[in-house]
UniProtKB/TrEMBL annotation:
Pfam families per record: PNP_UDP_1
Role this protein plays: The purine nucleoside phosphorylases catalyze the phosphorolytic breakdown of the N-glycosidic bond in the beta-(deoxy)ribonucleoside molecules, with the formation of the corresponding free purine bases and pentose-1-phosphate.
Organism in which the protein naturally occurs: Rhodohalobacter mucosus
Residue sites binding a purine D-ribonucleoside per the record: 185, 227
Xref: InterPro entries: Nucleoside_phosphorylase_d, Nucleoside_phosphorylase_sf, Purine_phosphorylase
GO cellular component entries: cytoplasm
Binding locations of phosphate: 32, 63, 83-85, 115, 204
Name this protein carries in UniProt: Purine nucleoside phosphorylase
Molecular function GO labels: purine-nucleoside phosphorylase activity
EC number of this enzyme: 2.4.2.1
SUPFAM superfamilies with a match to the protein in the record: Purine and uridine phosphorylases
One of the protein's GO biological processes: nucleoside metabolic process
Length: 264
């Protein structure tokens, strides 16, 4: 079956026929290198994307391409270990497939995560940041022309930081600049983005946030700083840093997501 012939309702039917619950409390989209979060789920079960009708495959390193279900604090959770980026050749309508699935599973909460480069010189590799605003450059992502870009993150950012503090974690807050990629930025671009007010840069999340807001899903977005962006430090940029930084912070990332699932 071709992916565009399978509706999200049909995918939901397939998944409930394979042990997934009808409804979940939370859905989590895991960014580059952050897939190990699923090790924290109780009674986990998973299906590779390649076995789910209508699911595209992921091609980016650090995205295994597997859909998990399990429980955390007694709550039903689905977790997407691997997302679809526009630069991999997916149309925006497909990059938001996890959001549509969160919607058919009636998730009350969606937690989106990503690996990002820090533009803000006060940030460090390994910092966690709750996104409270988005800048999009060059690429519109709304479904129809002239539609305003809507998302509603402001009320949750303070609460996320307060919950993080309860478990001894410091979380930054800031603006994510979304670029289509696939290549990293030039030093001059990063300097320009700093003057625009961006704190971190990445190539995902904005389309998912926009769609989640359109569907009325309460959404939080978390960045893990995996590298200082081009020119911010003298270090040469490489995708392997993403994996290293995620590996170093995976426990704290999991603790943060876990407390958000429990209490947000
Ligand atoms: O946003 P996620 O999926 O975490 O991936 C981030 O890591 C990749 C770059 O190494 C880019 O795809 C960037 O967006
Ligand atoms: N565009 C972009 N994406 C990233 N993902 C992780 N780090 C980076 C970065 O520096 N730039």
């Amino acid at each position: 079956m071709k992916s565009n012939q399978v509706s999200t309702e049909q995918i939901h039917l397939f998944l409930t026929g394979h042990g997934f619950p009808e409804k979940v409390d939370s859905a989590v989209i895991l960014g580059s290198g952050l897939g190990d979060f699923t090790e924290n789920l109780d009674e986990p079960e998973s299906i590779p994307y390649s076995e789910i009708p209508g699911f595209p495959e992921t091609s980016v390193q650090g995205h295994t391409g597997e859909l998990f279900r399990g429980r955390l604090h007694g709550k039903e959770v689905i977790a997407f270990s691997g997302r679809f980026h526009h630069y991999e050749g997916h149309p925006f309508s497909r990059t938001v497939l996890p959001v549509h699935l969160a919607h058919v599973f009636e998730a009350e909460k969606l937690i989106i995560s990503n690996a990002a480069g820090a533009i803000n010189t006060r940030f460090s590799v390994g910092d966690l940041m709750v996104i409270d605003d988005i800048i999009r450059l060059f690429h519109g992502i709304a479904a129809s022309p002239s539609e305003p870009f809507r998302y509603n993150l402001y009320p949750v950012a303070d609460r996320v930081r307060a919950l993080a503090a309860e478990i001894g974690l410091e979380v930054q807050r800031g603006t994510y600049i979304y670029l289509k990629g696939p290549n990293y930025e030039s030093k001059a671009e990063i300097r320009a983005f700093r003057t625009l007010g961006a704190d971190v840069v990445g190539m995902s999340t904005a389309p998912e946030l926009s769609e989640a807001s359109r569907l009325g899903i309460r959404t939080t977005a978390i960045s893990l700083v995996t590298n200082m962006a081009a020119g911010v430090s003298a270090k040469k940029l490489d995708h392997s840093e993403v994996k290293e930084a995620a590996e170093a912070r995976k426990e704290d990332f999991a603790r943060l997501v876990s407390v958000l699932i429990e209490k947000l």
